[in-house]
Structure formats: structure tokens, C-alpha cells
Amino acid sequence: MINLTDLTIDKARLLLDSRELSALELTKLYLDRIDDLDANIASFLSVNYENAIKQADNADSLIAKGDSDILTGIPMQIKDNICTKGIRTTCASNMLEDFVPPYNAHIVEKLNEAGAILLGKGNLDEFAMGSSTENSSFKITKNPWDITRVPGGSSGGPAASVAASEVLFSIGSDTGGSIRQPASFCGVVGMKPTYGLVSRFGLIAFASSLDQIGPITNNVKDSAIVLSAMAGYDSRDSTSLKVDIPDYSKGLKADLKGFNIGVPKEYFTLGIDPKIENNIREAIKTLEELGANIEEITLPHTEYALSVYYIIAPSEASANLSRYDGVKYGYSDSKSESMWDALEATRESGFGPEVKRRIFLGTYALSSGYYDAYYVKAQKVRTLIRQDFENAFKKFDVLVMPTCPTTAFNVGDKIDDPIQMYLNDIFTIPANIAGIPGISVPSGLIDGLPVGLQFMSGSLQEKKLFQAAYAYEKATDWNNLKPNI
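Below the sequence we write its predicted C-alpha cells.
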């Protein structure tokens, strides 16, 4: 009997290639598990049974011919703000409740080519705006470790689906920590690549200069495997980088001899739970025991990152979401007498409270008389934050810090307090502002809830990032802890 909670992409690949298990059998095992568990977890907005069975049959044909890729026959989930041709893509919003894209996102094309099997679409905070997946218009995803707790957000569905072993990997998006924060809360590995390494074509935009697509997996090697399959130049994305994509999973070692790791002191003063700080300090000792040279450093402009983010992200959201006018696609209020009344009614009913809040913030920051005072100034400080990181990576291979200041909080605890909710992303936002890669890996449990250790590296230095995370993972084995569902 196959134990899905023990499976990784590597282990599944061996079972599939040795014919001990067919892709169809594996797919049905996961679909059955989704049927058994997801009524309580609510990680899926849609499950695509018929499509998954077809893809599994095709994967078995490829395996039989010897044409399989490392992801051929591997079941996955994709966050529901990434376009899938012929499959509903809602952004967890009433505005797009019935939207079925006529095309695939670039990463969907690449994963289809690799033979991965899409089981369904993952729940999220509406238009990826939130840190708890409570802002979804359709359902609240629960944390598999404790269903009274949130899974984090906005990629709460993808993180919960991996933690609950409903899929072998999932794909999320990260604008200010939306992959890494839920990965921390759910005890899985979440990785945000360098901005531009993975095409954003087909990702429904929130904040275009910050958004990036990345994998959520059971372990670091799986994360590296999925990133290698997803990354690559795409002419349809003007920010896509023309760089060679290595196999990130090759050459990973269990030690960190010669590695220089910086510990930014600012990440240990910003309202961090003392239990989290103790956990991360212990993790840093482990890194030192693995041979790394550890040194405390300062990133002086870190204290401004949250303020910068909550000017730039809402401003870009305000511009991006102006396309939802009830005319071209999506929800439309048909009862109004005039065009302007229809536009107002459409946006009033189509958007939820958090999306409206961010549109208001962004429109204000971009308005006449305030543009220079807020948006332009935020962009200048963004440059200073990026320079802090560039200077740090002249000396250090990676930086290490907490992923989140707390463990997963109770459902309902912060939904009515936007400031407290926004503070959840205080340690993840700087990587998006600077456009650098970051990864969260499990570093233990506090009161039965997962904690995440975060690494950041310089632009396009994903190999170093994976190496540091892999060595820590092998030394601790925290990633093998699973929730008792």
C-alpha cells in the first residue's frame, strides 16, 4: 500500500519508471485523498477529475515509450490566479467566478509539456491580496496542522494541499511573501524565484513589478526540480530574463563548508515572537555546525520595506484592476440604467472588502498632488533597499532569517485588523521589493505548529539558495514531520 504522506517527486518517479505504480493509479489515489480530506481543508476551488484522468493516461503512454520527463505523471495543484485553458480561473473573486481562460499561462504550458497532472485549482485570498486565505470569496482554507488555524496566504490553498498530501507539489504566486509565508505556516517548502526567471504570462496581475510564480513542495530537492521545469525565457512577458536555466537539483551537498551566511539583525527586532527567535537562533547554530561562516550584518533600510510595499503594491493593483469594468469579461451588473451606474455596481458587487481597500489606497497614492509624495518616494526607498541587498551579497552567499514573526494564527483573529494582518509579511516583503529569490523551509514546531526558516540570495543565485536550504534540511529532517489529519 502506497503511503502518500511519505511520497516525494523523486520517490514517485522511481515507482512510475519501475512500473510498480501507473500514473493513472497514482492520480486516482490522490483524487480519492482529496475526496476524503478536502471538505475539511478546503484547499481546492475546483477539482478537475476528467482532465486529470486524461493526462494520467497520456503520462502512462509516455512512460511506456520511454519518453517521460521527471515530472511526467506527477500530480499537482495550481493556484487559481494562473490561467488554465478551458478550466475555470477565478482569482477567488466574484468578479471572475465564471471566467474560463482561452489560453494557458506559460508555466502551465511548460508543466503540460513535462507531463505533470493537474488535479485542480487552489484557493487563495481574492486576487492574491491577503495573508490568511480568509479573503477568498468562496471558502476559507484551513491549516492541516490545526483546522482552527489559517494556512497563511495568499497561496493558502497550494500550501495546505501539499501539507495535507493531496498533491505532490503545487504552484503559487508571491507578491510580498504569498508563497513563503503559507509554506512556513503549513510546514512545507515554499520558493520565490528571482523576478523575471519565471514568466508571468497568464498570471492574473496584482502588482506587476512584485509578482512572481514559484513552487511549493515537500522538500528542497523537489522545489529545485519544479523550478527547473518552470523557469525560462518567454517573449510574451516583457520582464522575462534571457538566461540559461540549469538543473537546480544537481550537485546539492549536505554540508556548507566555505559558505558565508549573513544574519540581518533587523529581522530579530520587528515584533518577533520570542519562541520563533529561539527556534531560528538554533537553526543558525546548525548552519554553523555544517561549516558555514556566520556573521551578523545590518540592512539599514529594512524598517521601511513594509511602508514601501503598501504604497507600491496597492498602486499597481489600482491600475491592474481597472480592467474589471463589467464590459470585456467577468462579472457584469446588468440592472443599471447607465454605463457609469453599471461600472460602479459591477465593482461594488464583484470585489471584496480587502480588494476595495487596496484599490482605494493605490488610487490615493497615485492621485494628483500625492503621486510625488508617496509613489515616487516609495520607489526611491525601494532602490535603497535593493542596494542594501546588493552590498550584502558582495560578501555573503546567502542571508538567513525567520520567514514569519509568528506561527499560524486562529481563523478570524486578524481579519478585522488590516495592520496586524499586513505585519505577517514583514520578513518576506523585502525580497519582492529587491527582486531577489527567497525560500522557506521547515525548522521545527512550536506548540504543535510549524515554523519556517528563510534564506535569501542574490539575483539569479538560486543554486546557492537551494544549497543552503538543502544542507539545513538534511541536517534536521523537519520536513518529514506531517500533520495528523
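Residues 91 and 440 are 24 Å apart (CA to CA).
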